[in-house]
Design goal:
single chain, 171 residues, mainly alpha
Length: 171
């Protein structure tokens, strides 16, 4: 499996005479992100690696070793865990990165453009609150009533005239 070969190559690079930790980390992160996705825990662990004695994990892992060797040991373990995971479970399924639908994003922009800054701030507060869904709905209705009747009609008309909405309504 070519992914395992790439990771094994990175393990071997840890022993190079002119080893550059930052360059190694960047390359390794690119590989790990491609294999496991950009939010994988192994990437976060690689990002934390450093040669300075400021990391608690390094102090715990290094013992009597030099800081550099302790860091390289951690790096090997992280990559070996990635290799073992690939050998046992195979390649992870590619998760499609969820992007907001373009039409939904456009609808939100239409609405937010018509709202005052204070109303947008209030909307964010409502949506971030711990209230239940029914209470949030009530508060948002109340907020929207402050926009003004004709402005609400303008917002709805703009949304209904959006090309995606027109296409959906026609079909």
């Amino acid at each position: 499996m070519k992914e395992i070969q790439l990771l094994e190559q990175q393990i071997k690079r840890l022993d190079e005479k002119k080893f550059d930790l930052e360059a190694w980390k960047k390359y390794t992160i690119v590989i790990l992100a491609r294999i496991f996705g950009p939010l994988d825990e192994k990437i976060r662990q690689i990002e934390k690696l450093e040669f300075e004695f400021t990391s608690w994990s390094l102090r715990d892992a290094s013992g009597n070793e030099s800081y550099e060797e302790g860091t390289k040991k951690l790096a090997r373990e992280i990559l070996q865990a990635a290799i073992d995971e690939l050998k046992i479970f195979g390649l992870p399924e590619k998760k499609v990165e969820e992007k907001p639908d373009k039409a939904i994003q456009d609808f939100l922009n239409i609405l937010l453009d018509e709202m005052k800054g204070s109303q947008v701030k209030q909307l964010k507060t409502i949506l971030s609150s711990r209230e239940n869904k029914a209470e949030k709905h009530r508060q948002i209705r109340e907020l929207l009533s402050g926009i003004g009747e004709y402005e609400v009609y303008d917002i709805l008309a703009s949304m209904l005239m959006h090309p995606e909405a027109v296409k959906m309504i026609k079909s």
